[in-house]
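To illustrate this point, what follows is a protein record of this kind.

___
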Amino acid sequence: MGKLPPLMTEPLFTPADEYAMRLALDQAQNAWLVGEVPVGAVITRGGQVVATGYNRPITTHDPTAHAEIVALRHAATLLENYRLPECELFVTLEPCAMCAMALMHARFKRVVFAARDPKTGVAGSVIDLFGQPQLNHHTRVESGLLADASAQLLRDFFNERREAARARRAERQGLIPTGEATHLDDTA
């Protein structure tokens, strides 16, 4: 008979982890307020918040301005180093390929994300870039912290956008006259 692994007595996520992810959710709200997809990120080092960021590609006309990259740039500038091996990232949505590689190039110790992204997530949803043994740096990845809150925020945002698009279409249709003329002007 094999030996069973010991029971986990420590929670998977610490209160500090939850605090950082709640800050990331606040950052995601900031993105929504300016019309961006609500994704937020927080970078910590030694339990202290170093930098925050939220999605801004539309407002800044910068396709690389994802929440993770915005926070990463702030942290690197503040810490005066492009390598951040003692840093941890908390982000509300699973990173895309661009963000994942930037985090690995910066040598992040750990990435914690809330909700999975089945379309572009590369921490296991579409592929797992973090798990590629050929790469020279391996970042620890954990998921699911406040996943429901993050997923709900994204659902609400996209529902609101779809509803607004429907309203715009309906308004445009009302501006274009349809049907037959019932009265002709005799003044000609």
Summary: The longest strand covers residues 48-54. The chain is about 40% helix and 15% strand. The first helix runs from residue 15 to 33. The helical segments are 15-33, 57-60, 67-79, 97-105, 147-175.
